[in-house]
């Protein structure tokens, strides 16, 4: 019995290493974006991110593609504000 548990655990960790991750948790998104987890939840509430729910624990999950789109949008808005700044001497 113990042997099969170890085998299953090893197989599970091997699958996780080989399969690319499609979804990120609130904490992972917050770490990537450099914001607090509450900020990620607020983006979800405002519709800037779409949360998918884990079928077992109902946690919020976010697609990596959606995070990339949000990051591009933030970067573009930063570029626009840089263009609007005027240096006064």
**Strand arrangement, largest sheet?**
1-3-2
What overall geometry do the principal axes of the alpha carbons give?
elongated
The total tally of domains equals: 1
Radius of gyration, CA atoms, in whole angstroms: 19 Å
Overall structural class, as computed from helix and strand content, comes to mainly alpha
Main beta-sheet strand count, sense and barrel state: 3 strands, antiparallel
Strand residues, percent = 5-15%
Query: Which CATH C-level class is it?
Result: Mainly Alpha
Brief synopsis:
This protein is mainly alpha-helical. Helix content is 63%, strand content 10%.
Detailed description of the structure:
By secondary structure, this protein is mainly alpha-helical. It has a single domain (20-84), classed as Multidrug-efflux Transporter Regulator, Chain: A, Domain 2 (Orthogonal Bundle). The protein has 4 helices and 3 strands, in the order αβααββα. It has helices at 2-18, 26-33, 37-46, 64-84, and strands spanning 23-25, 52-53, 60-63. Strands 1-3-2 form a 3-stranded antiparallel sheet. A hairpin with a 6-residue loop joins strand 2 and strand 3. Helix 2 (26-33) crosses helix 3. It starts with a helix and ends in a 5-residue tail after the last helix.
């Amino acid at each position: 019995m113990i042997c099969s548990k170890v085998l299953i655990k090893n197989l599970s960790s091997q699958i996780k290493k080989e399969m690319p991750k499609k979804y990120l948790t609130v904490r992972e998104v917050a770490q990537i974006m450099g914001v607090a987890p509450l900020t990620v939840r607020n983006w979800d509430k405002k519709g800037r991110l779409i949360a998918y729910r884990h079928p077992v624990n109902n946690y919020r999950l976010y697609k990596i593609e959606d995070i990339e789109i949000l990051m591009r949008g933030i970067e573009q808005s930063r570029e626009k504000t840089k263009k609007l700044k005027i240096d006064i001497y």
